[in-house]
Amino acid sequence: MKKTLLGAILALSLPVAAQAGELTARAGDGFFGASYEGSLLLLTTSADWLTNDGTGNIGSLGLGVQAPLGIAKLKAGGKLVYMNFNHQDNHYAAALGGGVDIPVGAFTIYGQGYFAPSGLASDGVDHYKEMRAGVRWNMTKMVSLDAGYQYGHMKGKDGNRSVTVADGLYVGAQLNF
User: Fold this and answer.
1) What total of structural domains would you count in the chain?
2) Could you please report the per-residue DSSP string of 129-150?
3) For the segment 22-36, what is each residue's pLDDT rounded down to a tens digit?
4) So which residues are the signal peptide here (predicted)?
5) Which of 31, 74, 130, 153 is the most buried (most CB within 10 A)?
């Protein structure tokens, strides 16, 4: 019985140990972002944090699927988004979207976008949208450098003001494991 239980625990722990992941930090004019993305077979998980001292913070947890298409990797999924803006109530949204990674030699061109209409957001939110696109230089198998553009915006309604946390170029670094 103990051997069967131990074998089951080891078998269930192998996929977790084999999960590929990326930890990214990026800084732009007035904003800072950090992201984690993990993948196991066709499933992806993500956690993102975006902050701007002048406007507030956006955090999200995501789940999706990915599929190869030639050399490209396509991703689709959803995120639960928490918005904590200065001088405003906290807001929430369930955003849907996806992205693409296209390797080109030592570089990867990437882009992603997510959107939540008012029906998938808390009161006071007309819509939420975010996007990020850029180029990643894969220096080594473990370390990459990024340059790109990031946008994060919530359009308010019912007396809540619209807030843009990020709208500009950034540079960053990524650790792959």
Assistant:
1) 1
2) EEEEEEEEEE-SSSEEEEEEEE
3) 999 999 999 999 999
4) 1-20
5) 130
